[in-house]
Structure prediction request, 412 residues.
Amino acid sequence: MNHRVVITGLGAVTPIGNTVEKFFENVKAGVCGIDFITHFDTEAYAVKVAAVVKDFDPKPYLDIKETRRLDRFSQFAVVASAQAIQDSGIDLKSIDKDRFGVIVGSGIGGLENIEKEARTLMEKGPRRVNPLFIPMTITNMAAGNIAIKFGAQGICTNVVTACATGTHSIGDAFRNIKHGYADVILAGGTEASVTPLGVAGFSALTALSLSQDPLRASIPFDKNRDGFVIGEGAGILLLEEYEHAKKRGAKIYAEIVGYGATGDAYHITAPSPDGRGGAMSMKNAMNEAGIRPKDISYVNAHGTSTPINDKLETMAMKTAFGDEAYKIPVSSTKSMIGHLLGAAGAVEAVACIKAINEGFIPATIGLLEADEECDLDYVPGKGREADLSYVMTNSLGFGGHNASLIFKKMEV
Prediction:
């Protein structure tokens, strides 16, 4: 028996707001969260900008001891999870904890502490390395700490598929509930890799934008795009089996109806040149949802602002949607928040769900000059009001990982 899966809670920590409400308010206003890096010296770096979380305060959710034991990526995840639980109105004392799970991933994990403890090792020796170094930095500890904090004793895993991590995590949670293995799962992604080594590493790959203008650095689908802008944050969804949510009188944001996941089997960083993997991911999601391209109201694209990704994702959408591709609004919220790596798909899922509920299509704010090879409707400059029935979000990760989710406007 298949079960319906709905979203009843949302949480977000982002470069343009540390709550879902503030985040989407700024999405609607087209606010850019990209600015010059100031928390470390970038004099020797060609890359000068990033999208960092501002004014983050974990104190309402974590005490001082907990905060000290958690890397920044785990702090983001726990705070966003607490928001999602609070938003859902769920009484954790009344649910079956064995059917309450966590699937939250990170693309890189605790890079900040890896750098810190590597310096300690080199400068002071092995005996001075923090005893909590390993549990602070390994990628599964976002999920582990969420489960410990909220008593989730069901499935507790993390997905690590680079930039597709958040989307795969939500998709896996969807399938676990759909097929009867859980009633409630906190799912999403988190990342905190705007560090000297993180920026240097992506710079060495020539993946990052070299723009000195924060407003012209992340410009998905623009002819002058030159790379992505690294960002940080977390997005968490509380997924719930429909009858379970209905029984407790929960408010329901949307229903998840489709999930596609494929691999390019092509290259460690570049997408397949024919866009086939991304197209198949979208097709698989539509097949599971039982819909056709004409039913899609909006696509939140991966849209990283790299020359190759945006061109090949456009090609993939044309393959997946056929002639309908030219009729479907597409945008990239990375134009506002940069690329949150393992958290990207999860924060973008929050944006999609809010878009459905508020009847608003986010803009691609940095898009000024059209690219001949990117010729779809990318909602340039300013968002639009629209009645949205089915919304798709795509994520494409290093290693050829592709993931697509479809959210549906809630129908009883």
